[in-house]
Amino acid sequence: MSSNKPLAALLMLGALGLQGCASERSESALDQASATFQSVKDDSNVLRSAPRDVIRAGESLGRAERLATYMGTGADVRHYAYLSQRYSEIAREHTNLVLNQERQAKLELERQRLQLALREAKLTSVQQQGKWLEEQIVSLATMQSDRGLVMTLGDVLFDTGQAELKNSASRTVLKLVQFLQLNPKRVVRIEGYTDSTGAAEENLKLSKDRAQSVADMLVDLGVDEKRIQVEGYGDQYPVEANASERGRAQNRRVEIVFSDAKGRLGAAR
């Protein structure tokens, strides 16, 4: 009889150890579910896009907390903590989907607005419009070089480190599109440049991507892609020293190089 006492004691200690591990797992699951729920509850976009999932996450979390406080088992606590966690994650995933759809809809509305502006931008005659637009393009150009007439789109048309055009670029791009529509033989080369900040390989990619963004908008608005060349030169060919912020800002640019009236484009760099 006495020989069974040590064995019983060991079994009891083992059971207590297992119970402690289960309790720790339940507490960890509850903490994780609570933190995830708090992050979605405090996000106005999630509350707007997936309110039902947020409510379900809160209800499941509340049940898990009550079970942990009173008579619930560890398995029950972990079950409802898991449900809360998943509802919170679903709410976040649904919100990301809605926000992406809203962004796509906004871009489509902007494209439609630009196309409408193109149709409405008519002067009394094609000849007057062509002359006016040519004057506008010349006034925007920074120089006449051996490459041809060059127009510079400054760094303000892009967010730092980004290749997507800002809405503020629309007016300049519209003039460029109209000019090319009225001069169907002209072609352009779009050249991207950066300052010397960052790695050369990254600068080269960013410069090409920015030039491509301008080209894509021209194509979206009806310019034949065969009339457009795209080049990226990275931090090569600075127009100012990169030692100052002003100089770096001058070097972050996209240049539009125009052919002559017969479509002859100057040599690339």
Could you provide a short overview of the structure?
The protein is an alpha+beta fold. The protein contains eight helices and five strands.
Write structural notes for this entry.
This protein has 269 residues and is an alpha+beta fold. The protein folds into 2 domains: 11-102; 121-258, 60s Ribosomal Protein L30, Chain: A. Helices cover 62% and strands 10% of the residues. It is built from 8 helices and 5 strands; from the N terminus they run αααααββαβαβαβ. A hairpin with a 2-residue loop joins strand 1 (141-145) and strand 2. Helix 1 (4-41) runs parallel beside helix 4. The longest helix is centred in the middle third of the chain and has 47 residues, at 74-120.
Give the secondary structure arrangement, pairings included.
Elements: H1 4-41, H2 44-49, H3 51-69, H4 74-120, H5 126-140, E1 141-145, E2 148-153, H6 170-182, E3 188-193, H7 200-220, E4 228-232, H8 245-251, E5 253-258
Parallel strand pairs: 3-4
Antiparallel strand pairs: 1-2, 2-5, 3-5
Helix pairs in contact: 1-3, 1-4, 3-4, 5-6
